[in-house]
Design a protein that fits this description.
Strand order of the largest sheet: 1-2-3
Oligomer: single chain
Order of helices and strands: EEEHHHHHHHHH
Radius of gyration: 26 Å
Number of domains: 2
Number of strands: 3
Structural class: mainly alpha
Largest sheet: 3 strands, antiparallel
Distance between the termini: 67 Å
Shape: globular
Strand content: under 5%
Amino acid sequence: MATSWNADARAFQVGDRLIPFTLYDIALILGLPVRGEPIDCNQSHSGGSVVEKLLNRHLKTTSPERTQLVTLLTKPSIQVPNRVRLYIALVFSYFLFPTTSKKVNPSLLPLLDDRANLGTYAWGKAVYDFLVSGLSRAASSMQAKKGRGNLHIQGCTALLQIWACEHLGIGQKNAEINQPFPRFLAWTHQRMYTKKAREAFSNSANVLSVLVAMPWEQEFNVVEEAMETLQETHGSSHPTISRDDGAGPSNRTQTPSNQLQLELQAERAEREALAREVGRLKDELDHVKAPTLTKPAAHSNPHCGLAKFTVQGCQERQSC
């Protein structure tokens, strides 16, 4: 995906089209707020936060390896409030804000002091900015090395894989999860191989330039705010997002391009619903096929108490 990244447009080149990577994608895929108190992932500070004191006391450093943080979490001496802080720090280090150094980023740790106000921050925007910065550096490095050597991207790279699955229509969602939010819950055990990724990024025929929020997703404030942010930042240059809440005709103009996007999204939603129904029917069928005992039949040996029986259609006879 780094080879398809356009840093100036903050978009991926898919075939002959540029598909924007936006805060709206973050809200739908991760369910994180894109509005709120800003977060600076590179801000320096005094180093006196609760978590940093814990790290210094137990690990003698405020920027340990991520694996050391896992070990610290297992210590029974850590009290519950601090265990919660350490767990969130672990999520930062492994999932939301991973670095190429594989160490804990101390700049975010002071935010964990006041757990009650964690929901007031624009976490989605912080994840987005951190990942975009990492993508742009990786793309620039690839151009300089002309594709040689290993490539490491800082940031939530799992988000990029799910973005590709959602926008390019590749992969298979977990059919057992109905109406998932955030969307990453439905994308488990996905792997994107290089050949498959290149093929997907070379064809723009069935690509969704903008995802359409489903009715159950529109009930969340983070999605509503992200939709408003997208319209404010992209305006007429971005396909219009229409509400699909079944309340009647939208008062927004539907362009042919946007109508196609809606149809593609609806088609995918129907396929996912069908997959869930097939899974449900399969479970019911497996339940019906449970071992059953048939009516005992006469045996050729009157002195034997064994009877003929069938299990799941098997017609083997038991003999003395």
